[in-house]
Amino acid sequence: MIRVLLVDDQPLLRSGFRALLDLEADIEVVAEAGDGLEGLTLVRRHLPDVALLDIQMPVVDGIEATRRIAADPALAGVHVVILTNYGFDEYVFDALRAGAAGFLVKDIVPEDFLHAVRVAARGDALLAPSITRKLIDRYVTQPVGTGAGLEELTNREREAVALVARGLSNDQIADHMVISPLTAKTHINRAMGKLRARDRAQLVVFAYESGLVVPPGS
After folding, report:
1. Is the pLDDT of residue 160 over 80?
2. Which InterPro entries does the entry link to (predicted)?
3. Mean pLDDT of the chain
4. 53 exposed, middle or buried (CB, 10 Å; 0-12, 13-18, 19+)?
5. Which domains does the chain have, with CATH numbers?
6. Mean pLDDT, to the nearest integer, of 151-168?
7. What are the φ and ψ backbone dihedral angles of 157, each rounded to 5 degrees?
8. pLDDT above 90 for 39
């Protein structure tokens, strides 16, 4: 059973999301909150698999709530998905850096919304190639980082992280590296551990900030 927490200051939207989730046999909404501070209290109480957080909320916003969840070792199993009205923007990028597994636009179709919840619960990042391209676009005009942390990765781990940053799935990475999907997942998990990344979303951010992946045209 996938346990979900809903945090949004708009009751009507929360009700709509809950109605969708309640129809699914493998999903349970464990609690709802109307602001980020209340959401943090309920996250610690219920330890959901997925926390759906509105990016703009009173008291504590979604980015700060994500940051606090990511910083708490007791909440390592909570996968944060940011809800936004605006699509990919600077706030969403900040949320990914803070530790969010991905984001959803609130006008998403129901089938995609439910699929996204299941993807997040598995620990996979909600980073479709189109979203990855948005990250690339941001870094076309931004300086990359110093590459700190790269020296801790093996050559195969670096290769796997670079492929993650280009939006490839584990199966596609395995095909590209001519290894099994399990071995590809192992490389990725080891890289996440060495870099202290919560998920694939943070690997993507690291890949561009470190210069492991260079945006086209830069």
Report:
1. yes
2. CheY-like_superfamily, NreC/VraR/RcsB-like_REC, Sig_transdc_resp-reg_C-effctor, Sig_transdc_resp-reg_receiver, Tscrpt_reg_LuxR_C, WalR-like
3. 84
4. buried
5. 2-126 (3.40.50.2300), 137-210 (1.10.10.10)
6. 89
7. -65, -40
8. yes
Distance CA 101, CA 92 (A): 11
Sequence length of the chain is 218
* DSSP code per residue over 19-72: HHHHT-TTEEEEEEESSHHHHHHHHHHH--SEEEEESS-SSS-HHHHHHHHHH-
Helices (H), ranges, the chain? 11-22, 36-46, 62-71, 90-98, 110-121, 129-140, 155-165, 170-177, 181-195, 200-210
104 backbone φψ class: left, alpha, beta (φ>0; ψ -120 to 50): beta
**Intra-chain end-to-end CA distance of the chain, in Å:** 45
Choose among 55, 104, 50: nearest CA to 80.
50
Contacts of 64 (CB under 8 A, 6+ apart): 36, 98
How many Å apart are CA 45 and CA 210, to the nearest integer? 36
- Regarding pTM above 0.85, the answer is no
Distance CA 124, CA 78 (A): 12
CA-based nearest residue to 164, from 190, 184, 143, 140: 184
Query: Residue 60 is encoded by which pair of tokens?
Result: 């504590």
Q: How confident is the model at residue 107 (pLDDT cuts 50, 70, 90)?
A: confident
Residue 97 pLDDT greater than 80, yes or no: no
Dig out the tokens for 124 from the structure. Answer: 């996979």
- Can you tell me the mean pLDDT for 46-50? 97
